[in-house]
Amino acid sequence: MSVTLVAEAPAVQLTTEEFMSGVFEVQHPLIACHLTRLRDKTTPPAEFRQLVNRLASLLAYEATKDLRIEKVSVQTPLTKTDGSQLAQRIGLIPILRAGLGMIDPVLELIPTAEVWHLGLYRDEETAQPIKYYSKLPPERPVDVALILDPMLATGGSAVDALTTLRDWGVPHVKLLSLIAAEEGVKRVECEFPNSQIYVCQIDPDLNDRKFIVPGLGDAGDRIFNTIGH
Ligand code: PRP
Question: Are 60 and 97 in contact (CB under 8 A)?
């Protein structure tokens, strides 16, 4: 595609409220149906991965509605006309392992995004997050970071990731989770009131092992077919 940036044009806002903080439980019939299959304990790993992919796309569509764009001029086969391009650097921050399942669909929507992996796992005894991988550069933070993690349970992992991104200097952070527990959502809201949380559904409970109830089990194990190992 041949595009020319119209330098003097101001950045275009897609919505009136830029980067509102808040929790968005996205209501959509396709999300409701795919999430039901995702919860089903008989759904095999191959279908589970497809469902994660579809839900991540739908969630990302919603979560990117307020990205800033700028006007460009584009030459079609017939004439010149006005067009748009993203005006911000976007970073995808998948939380290993389960967040890996959400990268491809979001990258498909934002092919110019940078991907910065964070490795976190929850200690089985304490449910506290343990960080084991982070290679964020010391400078030049992205303008908008989308944290990708299918599950937000106690909120410990999300708070750790948000802290890392704040320390990097990212001004706008959005957390995309397929499912969340009320407790975790409240914790993130409380500790990072300026962040946005996009989720397909918020479940009411955590069990004594800090699993989301009714939930969908362990997303990482179901994506990678490692249940019981
Ligand atoms: C899961 C999930 C989140 C975290 C949520 O990862 O993918 O990262 O737990 O729990 P929290 O909100 O209580 O922190 P897990 O520790 O199972 O690692 P895995 O993806 O490698 O399986």
Answer: no
